Amino acid sequence: MTQENTAAIEPSWLTSLNPEQYEAVKTTDGALLVLSGAGTGKTSVLVARMAYILSSELARPWNCMAVTFTNRAAKEMGERLEAMIGSAADDVWFGTFHKICVKILRRHAGLLGFESNFTIIDTDDQLRLIKRIMIEEGLDAKEHPAQGAHSIIERWKDKGLAPDKVSFSQVSEYAAGKTLTIYKKYQDRLRSINAMDFGDLLLHCLTLFTKNQEVLAKYQNQFRYILVDEYQDTNVSQYLWLRLLAGKHKNICCVGDDDQSIYSWRGAEIENILRFEKDFAGAKTIRLERNYRSTGHILGAASGLISHNNERLGKTLRVASADVGDGEPVQVRGLYDAKEEARTVINEIENLYRTGSSLSQIAILVRAGFQMREFEEKLVSESVSYRVIGGPRFYERMEIRDAMAYLRLVVQSSDDLAFERIINKPKRGLGDATVSKVRELAGKLGFSMLMAAERIVETDELKPKPRNTLRGFVEDFSRWKAYLDDIPSSELVAMVLEESGYLDMWRKDKAPDAAGRVENLKELVSSIEEKFESLPEFLEHVSLVMENDESPDGDKITLMTLHAAKGLEFDAVFLTGWEEGLIPHNKAVEENGTKAIEEERRLAHVGITRARKRVFISFAANRCIFGNWQNSLPSRFVEELPSEHININSASGLYGSSTTEKSGTWSWSGGGKWKNTKTQQNKKDIWKIKTSKGEIPTGSRIFHQKFGYGKVMEADGDKLEIAFEKAGRKKIKASFVEKV
Prior knowledge:
Elements: H1 3-9, H2 12-15, H3 19-26, E1 32-36, H4 42-55, E2 64-68, H5 71-85, E3 93-96, H6 97-108, E4 119-120, H7 123-136, H8 146-158, H9 179-192, E5 195-196, H10 198-211, H11 213-222, E6 225-228, H12 236-245, E7 252-256, H13 271-274, H14 276-279, E8 284-288, E9 290-291, H15 296-306, E10 318-319, E11 330-335, H16 338-354, E12 362-366, H17 372-381, E13 386-388, H18 398-411, H19 416-422, H20 432-445, H21 449-456, H22 464-482, H23 489-499, H24 502-508, H25 514-531, H26 535-545, E14 557-561, H27 562-565, E15 570-575, H28 586-608, E16 611-620, E17 622-625, E18 628-631, H29 636-639, E19 646-648, E20 666-670, E21 673-676, E22 690-691, E23 694-695, E24 701-704, E25 708-716, E26 719-724, E27 728-733, E28 738-739
Parallel strand pairs: 1-7, 1-8, 2-3, 2-6, 4-5, 6-7, 9-10, 11-16, 11-19, 12-14, 12-15, 13-14, 15-16
Antiparallel strand pairs: 17-18, 20-21, 22-23, 24-25, 24-28, 25-26, 26-27
Helix pairs in contact: 3-4, 4-5, 6-10, 7-8, 7-9, 10-11, 10-12, 15-28, 16-17, 18-19, 20-21, 21-22, 23-25, 24-25
């Protein structure tokens, strides 16, 4: 039969594939790694491959398994397969790793000492159980939060380590070196209540297979074909589980992209995909490099950047069709500070909107959550609709709401909602009974709960310990309220967060998101310092910000982190804050060195490849991070972008004028280096201001009681921007400094 006749009888879902996709679908014998770059149609390949296997009768539906990382992805694949081959798709084992493991464990729970109706406990229950065990071990919950032990246990489970497999060298010093003891007791308690956590689903499945060869053989025989999505995101447990199941037929097809491995912080091991050909003898690798999403310049910039990584298998993205063309070069701009970055990014978005672009096809991507605050406030002030993906808006975050409750109670003693929100944040040992007595007295006397607390601590209604704790709480608020008019609002907020123990609570928390919460709280202090003279003024501002339309529908800009953006695509993408310390992130580099730099570069690559038509990259020469002004260097990733695919500081005015009083200009000096060519300050910058302290012109040396000596850099009304010798740059009211 001729090739033309063969093509004529093949279904459209097969003939529509490009040559590399077609080869990946029809390569059905043995292990296959499909290296699928961004936008190269990996889902189409996965589904078409399954359809081909079933329509060619190479296996029955129940002999096929497709493993994904999300229920949404599994559902989409199932629906697409059903559209291709009909109801036969119903019997394919589609699901996440956890879902498929649950299905297996329900059938064989008795072999592991569980009943088939075991429960799966959530994170809150896990933490409560671990905390109880730690108390039994004589550990102070404040000194050793349960979250720390929980994170260590999770990592052990990600690596497939049951308690008896944890070596001495892997035992953490956390919790006085008792983490392994806690782990053993935790697993015993779970078994005693017929429960598992999510990590157990894979761990117990591994135990089931390794200790019961007949069960393993059953599933090895059943699954003739195994397909795996997003293989670069697998952890050790998932990798071991897949190897066991593929041990007989060895027909395993893994689709993934080593250049998009960005989740090491939650257990993903890039080595799984890098060593695929060694792990599966005779494995074949097919590269999907034809991109159906982005223009030539975008792909050229992304490929040039990621080529600096050493830990990669290598591929080069190119446009799938000549009709797409190169498009616009990636726009790269250096700006003065975060405010100018937010202002000019929003201005450009408004320009795109005026020329016909949909807001829903525009995304602003940040490396760290605290960066969102500046953009959110600018979007609100310009009445531009937006949505935050992957988390709440800045002022909706739990830690910010808690902090705001503290501030509301400082300003307004009658705010009972705020009182009840923070009375036990952090934990103070004030139980429901104590709070109920305060509430009851408040209702009886017609007082606020804070006023009632002031009264009740002078009586014998409470036991000594809660009475003394509540007295300390009341005295704290009395002291903070006395400072309302005496110190800058930002200093007062910092004082409240520190003295209340709330900030320290998150510093000690070992949960993966705790560091981000600390960053957000510090950003809150910075936001007040920049432009609010009083705490009531700031609280009013936040109330107005929160009035922004919360409906998720409609034409809205998307604001999100780079991590949350993976798998999404937009017409235009703004990549902001491309500075050393932000991307690559200081904390990641300090902890993991070169490996972290490569993962951060992959994260930058993911950001660029989210865009179909336009990419805008920006960085600031100065950035106020958590109250400290820092002179920032452009990210090394900016220098690694191929010059033929980027446009640097063009005369288009994309990021506004660089002739404003504050603006500095970053320019490319050749040889792969950026230089700051900020011109002399405009005469407007050296005006003098009148304050209660007398004249304090720019250039003056001053003294501040908290921050020490500094130099006045700029003046705006009665606000001074001061470069302190030890505390960095800050904005301070002139009345709070002395000229020396």
